[in-house]
Amino acid sequence: MEQAILISEKDNVAVALRPLEQGATVNLDGCQVTALENIPQGHKISVRPIGKGKDVVKYGFPIGHATKEIAMGSWVHTHNMATNLSGEQEYSYEPESAGDAGEPCPREPLFFQGFGRGDGKAGVRNEIWVIPAVGCVNDIAKQMVRENQDLVRGSIDGLYAFPHPFGCSQTGADHAQTRKLLAALAQHPNAGAVLVLSLGCENLTQGQFKEELGDYEEGRIKFLTCQEVEDELAEGRKLLQECAAYAGQFHRTPIPINKLVVGMKCGASDGLSGITANPAVGRFSDLLVAQGGSTILTEVPEMFGAEGMLMNRCASWEIFCKAVDMVNGFKHYFLSHHEVVYENPSPGNRQGGITTLEDKSCGCVQKGGTAQISDVIGYGSQIKKKGLNMLYGPGNDLVSCTALTAAGAHIILFTTGRGTPFGAPVPTIKIATNSQIAMRKKNWIDFNAGTVAKGESLGSAGERLLCHVLAVAGGEKARNEVQGYREISIFKDGVVL
Question: What residue numbers bound the domain in which 15 lies?
Answer without folding.
Answer: 4-82
